[in-house]
Design goal:
Elements: E1 3-7, H1 11-22, E2 27-31, H2 34-44, E3 48-52, H3 60-69, E4 78-82, H4 87-95, E5 100-103, H5 108-120
Parallel strand pairs: 1-2, 1-3, 3-4, 4-5
Helix pairs in contact: 1-5, 2-3
Length: 121
């Protein structure tokens, strides 16, 4: 069973993620911020991480940088979820090691498709 960690501070999006992923066979864990996410990631060693960019305590870029600084986590792909589709923001995601980008708002089917895409690679 594939493990997926989502880091998202917005309760509505966390609920959307839970609902969307309920019908999958993946082991899904959700953190409310990057710090909590890093703890989960370190413990679970997921197959992929989806993270919001703008979060309290530790944002998505700080999370990605912390993951890349650890040899045991550096290989885990991270996909940034952000409402910003401005070129500079998307480029910043990739500068922080993003394997992909998912624009908000997204549908449940879009989310499931992106998760499936990263678990096939």
């Amino acid at each position: 069973m594939s493990k997926v960690v989502f880091c998202e501070d917005d309760p509505m999006i966390r609920k959307l993620v839970q609902t969307a992923m309920r019908s999958t066979s993946h082991d899904v864990h959700i953190a409310e911020d990057g710090k909590q996410g890093l703890e989960l990631i370190g413990h679970l060693r997921p197959d992929v991480v989806f993270s919001d960019v703008a979060m309290p305590v530790m944002d998505g870029f700080e999370l990605a940088d912390a993951m890349r600084a650890r040899s045991d986590l550096a290989h885990i792909p991270i996909v940034f979820m952000t409402a910003s589709v401005q070129r500079e923001q998307v480029e910043e995601c990739f500068r922080h090691g993003a394997a992909g980008h998912l624009a908000k708002p997204f549908t449940m089917s879009e989310l499931r498709a992106r998760v499936a895409q990263f678990l096939k690679s």
